[in-house]
Specification:
Number of helices: 3
Strand content: 35-45%
Strand order of the largest sheet: 4-1-8-7
Radius of gyration: 20 Å
Largest sheet: 4 strands, antiparallel
Shape: globular
Helix content: under 10%
Number of strands: 17
């Protein structure tokens, strides 16, 4: 019997301490998910590539069919991709994590070390979220006002990340915007974010919104952050602003002019 099936989006949400396979820069990691059957492996899907980053946060989800009565073995492979076609056969291997789908599904935040040639080298965190139920989205357009200047020879290159709070109190990336070059007053493209991915359709789940200054070497600087909920986002009224504060600077300055303003 194949059992009851469900679709589970998996997100290799983040990796830490990856091996650096590039000589003059950092690795450009991509995560490829395989199903394992004996000695054979079949690709299920892959994330986006993130340039010059040994601690990447992936945004893309990979959907896996879950057969409840079967043990489904999976392998997450990390590669350093230098080929413009993302050809992993030409890539440097960074590490892997083998597990079962059941282990991921039963954990609120699955984290394991990466195996590189028989030893631990970095780690990977994976989140699972069952499909189904109510499918809706929140639409949002934001602009920044007087954001903090982070670049020496220009203004910041800001982008936003939305993180949902997990049961263990940690946060998982749900959405990332484009970055806008050389401005302290950016206006991002209108966003349409699936609320199941953003907060599991719970209007009171804490959502952390971070504003970063994009850097080509992957060392993005935190400009500031604020916390909100779906309930608050759905009740935005004219004149609403979100103050953007950097936690490391709170004790240095009490008046923060940096803000994100919703455009209705």
């Amino acid at each position: 019997s194949s059992g009851i099936n469900a679709e589970w989006p998996l997100r290799p949400g983040s990796c830490e301490g990856l091996r650096d396979a590039d000589v003059f820069s950092k690795s450009d990691p991509i995560c490829v998910l395989y199903s394992l059957d004996g000695n054979r492996k079949r690709e299920i899907g892959r994330t986006e590539r993130i340039d010059d980053n040994l601690n990447p946060k992936f945004q893309k989800q990979i959907t896996v069919d879950y057969h409840f009565e079967e043990v489904q073995r999976l392998a997450f492979y990390l590669f350093d991709i230098d080929d413009k076609n993302n050809d992993v056969s030409k890539a440097d291997f960074l590490g892997k994590c083998e597990c079962t789908l059941g282990q991921i599904v039963s954990s609120s935040n699955f984290k394991r070390p990466l195996d590189y040639q028989g030893r631990n080298y970095g780690s990977i965190s994976i989140q699972a979220q069952e499909q189904g139920g109510m499918q809706k989205s929140v639409k949002l357009t934001l602009k920044g006002v007087k954001l903090d200047k982070k670049d020496w020879f220009g203004k910041s290159d800001p982008f936003l990340e939305f993180h949902r709070q997990l049961l263990d109190g940690s946060y998982a990336l749900a959405h990332r915007t484009e970055y806008i070059k050389n401005t302290l007053n950016p206006r991002w493209k209108p966003m349409k974010i699936n609320t199941r991915r953003l907060c599991d359709n719970n209007p009171d789940t804490v959502i952390k919104v971070q504003c970063h200054d994009w850097d080509s070497d992957g060392t993005h600087d935190l400009i500031g952050e604020f916390y909100t909920t779906l309930a608050e986002l759905e009740q935005i009224r004219p004149g609403k602003t979100f103050e953007v504060e950097n936690p490391k600077k709170k004790e240095k300055s009490t008046d923060c002019d940096s803000a994100l303003i919703p455009l209705l």
